[in-house]
């Protein structure tokens, strides 16, 4: 599992590099102008600025351990012009335990898939409806906030 987690953390680093560089070279102005397309507006950028001001480099480490935040943390790190080496170090260190946990649970589920599969299939439709509803609500509420802010 060590090498699986290491490969996963390297993949996280490579995947995050694009968002980091966009943030670094495009800066706050680019995110304010086009961030709405990735559901990141001025409010989210202000939150990220406060988060980075308070936690510094640990923001990337902690952000990599948290679902959802881990996806977006590279862009504000680039906007904050965090040094590349430190960004990659903290991205790797924060991604490694996440990847290890995913590999471990994937291995355990895989070993017991036949016995667990019948239980999971009972919830396929419910899980699908909940996921679609949650994503729909998030996008709708975010869009409504944008419309209110524009008025």
Provide keyphrases for this structure.
151 residues, 2 domains, mainly alpha, 8 helices
Describe this structure in words.
The chain has 151 residues and is an all-alpha fold. The chain folds into 2 domains: 1-102, no CATH class; 113-151. The protein has 8 helices and no strands. It has helices at 2-34, 42-55, 58-65, 69-72, 74-79, 84-111, 113-121, 124-150. The radius of gyration is 18 Å and the shape is flat.
In helices, the fraction of residues equals: over 70%
Q: Mind summarizing the main beta sheet?
A: none
Low-confidence stretches: none
Number of helix segments? 8
Q: Span from first to last CA?
A: 52 Å
Structural class estimated from helices and strands: mainly alpha
Q: Give the amount of beta strand, in percent.
A: under 5%
Number of β-strand runs: 0
Number of domains: 2
Label the overall shape. Answer: flat
SSE pattern, N- to C-terminal: HHHHHHHH
Averaged pLDDT, please?
86
What Rg, in angstroms, do the CA atoms define?
A: 18 Å
List the helices and strands and how they pair.
Layout: H1 2-34, H2 42-55, H3 58-65, H4 69-72, H5 74-79, H6 84-111, H7 113-121, H8 124-150
What is shown here, in short?
With 151 residues, the chain is an all-alpha fold.
